Amino acid sequence: MNGINENLGFLREKAGKLSRNPGVYLMKDKNGKIIYIGKAKALKSRVSNYFNNIAAHGAKVFKLISLIHDFDFIVTGSELDALVLEAGLIKQHYPKYNIKLKDSTGYNYIKVSGGEFPRISYALQTDDKEAKYIGPYASGFNIRQTVDETCRIFALPSCSKKFPQEFGKARPCLNYQIKRCMGVCRGKITKDEYNYIIKSALDYIKKGSKESVKILTAEMEKAAADLDFERAAKLRDRINAIVKTETGQKIQTSKVTDYDIVATALDAELAAVTVIKYRGGRLYDKENFFLGDEYEIKQLLSDFLMEFYSAENAEIPAEIYTEEEPEDKELLESYFAEKRGKRVSIVVPKRGEGLMQVVLAKNNAREYLSLKVGRSVKTLGALEELAKILGLQKPPLYIEAYDISNIGETIKAGGMVVYKNGKPLRANYRKFTIKEVIGLDDYACMKEVLRRRFTRYSDKGDDLAFAAFPDLILLDGGKGHVSAVREVLDGLGLEVKLFGMVKDDRHRTRAITSDGGEIQIAANKQVFGLITKIQDEVHRFSLSFSRAAHKKKSYELELTKVAGIGDKKAAAILKHFKTKQAIKEADAEELAQVAKIKPEKANELKLFIEENL
Fold first, then answer.
1. Which tops the pLDDT comparison, 315 or 517?
2. Which is it for the CA torsion 303, 305, 308, 313, positive or negative?
3. pLDDT at 315 over 80
4. Which residues, including other chains, have CB under 8 Å from residue 43's CB and lie 6 or more apart?
5. Looking at domain 259-374, what is its CATH homologous superfamily?
6. Which residues are bridge partners to 22 per DSSP?
7. To 5 degrees, how large is the angle CA 144–CA 149–CA 153?
8. Strand, coil or helix: what is 197?
9. What pTM value is reported for the model?
10. Is 423 strand, coil or helix?
11. How far is C-alpha 561 from the chain's CA centre?
12. How far, in Å, CA of 344 to CA of 258, rounded?
């Protein structure tokens, strides 16, 4: 392992001299450039961990270690001080291996135009001096939705007519006929009445649907008490429109506090994070981010939350919901509370509406990531859930699966299939003819196949299928198969995640097994579907190979019925011509040359093939 970094001995010795105080460490390359900044509860333990047991690290950390030439450190008075200092230094130096959040969407605003009859619209610029703007917001999609929804609820005009200049100059458009517009163009709505409606619409945007319904209900009841039934009816219709929108679009929640949902989607080499914001009981905004490296989920969440909410203009809500508890949860809560001036809680919901919203945010992140990596949301979800069930640090990009197929005691074959990014990579499928095992012994056959496969890996030959190292190995078999193969891998000094695929009495996938007990997967449809496909595919592949071998062996035995044609000559004929049809089409001269027999014997063989095969 020392080969990955010539300076490893120096780095280990220097790390061993650090104190156990909290602080910040700065990793530098050979040019003295800072490439990573981290925080530590105990500097000695955290920094030493980088340079000890290197094989246990993921690809990202492994690459980082290979580039570290030296490191610096700053001791702090507390963990919270280290957290704050780390965030400031990251913003100052922008290290390559720290999370960077790039705003790829630009800024978005809600525009309220000037004049006697203002309009509410979506805008990217704030160049109209007579207008007022609400924002900025990161998500243009959600701002467009908000503007469209508001204009529909309050029946605001969306045409290009100018008021009051064009009052009564044309018949009202279709929107008025279908009650999507109040028909300002008729000239029957006063300036004060119109501006009151605009004020109500802006209250709806700023305060949320629950508060708007509460205000409008009070006004409706007052209008009814004043016997102004026409106004009360209009307010009633507006309230009904808000309630209908909430029910249809499911943007309403039962919580009245402000909160964010933060969820991730992981690929083997890429991560996406979605932040969905709720304000005043309604969906308010959504932002998506790509993180171009692999991350362990708890560290990813911790780093992301600190970067996202430590921005100068960051809006920190009362609650932040996450799918898992991030590293430094208590420190983050303390820092955010100090920055916000009020308590902030990071919550991992286990049931109810909160859990449903985390799942919704996670689905958004998967959709976003699927567009980037060119894979379906279903596949991404299955690999991510599989990693979680099996305790893997990241979704398995490269999966190898093995099965043994026997026909009697003479035909024994092994099959290896490969799944990359959740899809079969057929170019890397490989077949194994069992050469060492005598009799029927599935465990011994599986051990032979895996030993030959990873011996080829160690040889670093030109076969791409054997040159790749899998993130996960699946065996068609139970605990016994796993234990047998584990012995082989340990003997070769290889660390790779290994599990068995267990079938029931009807040969259907039932569970995943390790050296310990079984892991039930039937309840997780995505994982169950993926494992079933892999198990069925490796069984099909190995069985087809053994059947082909059986047919070949049977054909060889048929040829040996001709006097003078033994096993070696029959095998030579099959090896040369490859197919039964090619043998039938061969003339006696070709058969004589391949089998190295006399012309008379070749004629006899040709006649036998024509009459019997």
1. 315
2. negative
3. yes
4. 18, 19, 20, 21, 22, 23, 25, 73, 75
5. Ribonuclease H-like superfamily/Ribonuclease H (3.30.420.10)
6. none
7. 155
8. helix
9. 0.53
10. strand
11. 60
12. 11
